[in-house]
Amino acid sequence: MRRVAIAGGVLAALAALAAGAGYGAYKLKLFSSSQTERGDVVTRNEAAEPAPAPRRPPSAGASWPMFRYDERRTGFNPRAVGRPPFRIRWIGKAPSLGYLEAGLVVEDNVLVVATYAKRHGSDLVGVNAETGRTLWRRHYRHGTNFANSPAIDRGRLYISTRDGHMRVFDLRTGRLAWQVNLPGDPTESTPVVSRGIVYFGQFSGHMNAYDVRTRRRVWRYRAGRQNIAGGVALTRTTAYFGTYGGSVYALNRFNGRLRWKTTVRGARANLVPFYSTPALAGGKVVIGGNDGSVYAFDARTGRQRWRFDAQGYVYASPAIWRGRVFIGDFGGGFHALSLKTGRRLWSHQMGPVLGSATVMRNIVYASSLRPPRTVGLSARTGRVLWRFDDGQYSPIVADGRQVWLAGRRRFYRLTMVAPPRRPARRAAPSRRPAKPPRRARDGR
Fold it and tell me: Which CATH number fits domain 63-416: 1.10.8.100, 3.40.50.720, 2.130.10.10, 2.40.50.40?
């Protein structure tokens, strides 16, 4: 019996040693933790091509029409000109003591705010972006719950809800235009509308594409039985998303056929859940994982290109700007990474980060959960340039010259503080000798 016990102890020690060695090898990136299943072949990497500007009606001007600004979900608005220091122009309060978990969206001078309150239900509010005056409000009882950002397209507002609906409203009036009922199947996947199709996922693991004109489903893809909580990122022909089942997918955006599926496992061979919405740039799909890592995959083949170990769960979606990836983690780290290699360029310590960063005019903005605060950092160096004592989930968005910030229960319009005028310089006295008066022609 003693020999059996000793043998068992030795085997347990060897197993622990092997597990430790495997964990160490994983952390040292000595082996790839992903496996790719391929379907339709993509001839070229569209995510390496320049991103098209968000489509909008001529009357809308500049805008921030969807979560992460554009179809590639980069979080970078090249048209924004606002830069700190800022001053508060007006303050709005969330109805029903709601929280602002969803990012703000704005177009055609209408700012849309989605709030969530556990006991009081959820509200969707349209606000005059210039003055802060409420234009309309839609209230829903607890169970509907707006847990994601809406999307604006051609005067319509699209939002998915946890009571199993995709609802579509008139942007100007808040009137319900139409809705899709998905009985018993909640959704919190933030929608994206492109070329007349709205894309969104569901808790059941289905990814959907609906024609916004006919209001009929174009296709539906079953990505296992795990929740698709994040949104979809799009190139010209392909839709990308992650699931709680540990996989990242690329589908043909027109017919829903699989292009590739990459399954990711952590240090102990566990499947890595993905809550984050992916971002596309430089030929890569970048997404945060609930194992505390940031992943980059080749957008054409699905092959894992790099992995970065953060300080905690990565619920946030990445922002991408000029070859750099910006993303925070629940451990309180906010990081700038090389898009090409995943190498850390700089980090900034703050509270736990749940929300996704935004980039405007060479400044990256991020908010922390505790303390509720928003910071503006130099995108190149990480130096703190601006602080604001509110904000938890989603930081600054901007349409052009106007800037808005989502706090915990308040939202703000910010304007740039004009730089002080320099006093006019007085003309220095001339050192040249005075010219003698001209003599009159008559010699006097």
Answer: 2.130.10.10
